């Protein structure tokens, strides 16, 4: 064991990129430093600004001083089981994901290799992305088409997903309007362009079947989270009754919950690297999906550290069937990175430097910490 890989300091903090950012638009980062000064960066789920996950990290930080970053999988399981009665879904698994990503970043720097090499190598280092366009429940049909058109033309994505992000306390409240928007977007991009529809959990089983049949007619590629994520059997029923691929599991926080979704009948799962398990967890999900013949298409909304971590894992997946999610085209985080990830002709290049391959600028981060 070398002192180079022993944890000396863990700093967990929230970043407000703009002084006026509400908590929900802030970012939750962790910075881990080893005894010899290697530094790794991780990110937790940004729900409510990630503050709850940051609190968990601060709580367990002291117990990790002196631990070896090479033991990242053991550390993660030990902490998950120690904190299991706090959840474990959400804040705790977001904290563990952030820590795991930071430890992998250090491992890469220790061995002077990009993370994808340490994971077994890349099938590809250019990853096509899809533009993930949210908030369409609140838009008119014309507004929806205008917003989609702007990102379609600006980013040249390999595919587009339109998300609803509607009121989760109501169901089936505008099915004809939803189908009309799906039809208008299909008309905009033409018959062959890959499209996906994300219901964000807004339908009943019957409502989902009705919308799913319309999406099949319109040639949509997948139908995401048609019903409430916690109604696992209902999600599986919709998946099995429709011909269109139904996807779910962005709100699954453990390997066991992902398996439950697969056992219910879902054949495309979307665990998120900053919500469950980090790089270690997503690689374990990849093995589960490979064994079950299920598509792994991770959910991912964060443009800097979460995005880079996700790309490293996607590089290693043999059967990568769909593009990577690109939800936030804002460049507000670029100020804190000398080599930020930028879309290039519908693709992202996986960083090839050691660890995550990102050159983070600490004083820009520290200036913006809350
Ligand atoms: Ca989604």
SS-derived structural category: alpha/beta
Q: Any low-confidence stretches, pLDDT <50, length ≥5?
A: none
- Ligands (ions, cofactors included): calcium ion
Q: What is the name of the CATH superfamily of the largest domain?
A: Enolase-like C-terminal domain
Separate helix tally: 12
Terminal Cα separation, in Å? Answer: 36 Å
Number of domains: 2
CATH architecture of the largest domain: Alpha-Beta Barrel
Shape annotation: globular
> What Rg is obtained from the alpha carbons, in whole angstroms?
20 Å
Strand proportion = 15-25%
Most strands sheet? 9 strands, mixed
The total of beta strands comes to: 12
| Share of helical residues | 25-40%
Structural account:
With 370 residues, the protein is α/β, with parallel strands linked by helices. The protein folds into two domains: 3-112, Enolase-like, domain 1, CATH 3.30.390; 118-349, TIM Barrel. Helices cover 40% and strands 15% of the residues. Strands 4, 5, 6, 7, 8, 9, 10, 11 and 12 form a nine-stranded mixed sheet that branches. A three-stranded antiparallel sheet has the order 1-2-3, sandwiched between helices. It binds calcium ion (CA). Residues 198, 224-225, 250, 299 line the site of calcium ion (CA). The site of calcium ion has 5 residues, from loops.
